[in-house]
Design a protein that fits this description.
Number of helices: 4
Radius of gyration: 13 Å
Helix content: 40-55%
Number of strands: 2
Structural class: mainly alpha
Strand order of the largest sheet: 1-2
Order of helices and strands: HEHHEH
Length: 96
């Protein structure tokens, strides 16, 4: 929920992949900051999304700036976790 909480998890070796949520952590810049902390500690980073259009858009913007964010050996593209359940906050996502 914050860069300090993320750093604590990373420093303790508690995570192999960290998932900052732009809507919760304080925006795109904070998500990118946590991704850089993860990179410096050789931890994967896959931003999480809220189920809303705004959350998905924010996560996509962050992912676009994070080089090799997944650390997954089989991934050619960045990951984006997104729900597939019915969600009125996401169903209106503009395409185009």
């Amino acid at each position: 929920q914050s860069r300090h909480a993320a750093l604590e998890l990373i420093a303790r070796g508690s995570v192999d992949i960290i998932q900052p949520e732009p809507v919760i952590i304080g925006g795109i810049a904070e998500t990118i900051f946590v991704a850089e902390l993860a990179r410096l500690h050789n931890i994967g980073c896959v931003p999480h999304t809220s189920g809303s259009i705004v959350g998905i858009a924010a996560a996509l913007q962050a992912i676009a700036t994070i080089p090799d964010q997944s650390n997954a050996p089989t991934a050619d593209e960045p990951f984006l976790e997104i729900g597939t359940d019915p969600n009125p906050w996401r169903d209106g996502l503009p395409v185009g």
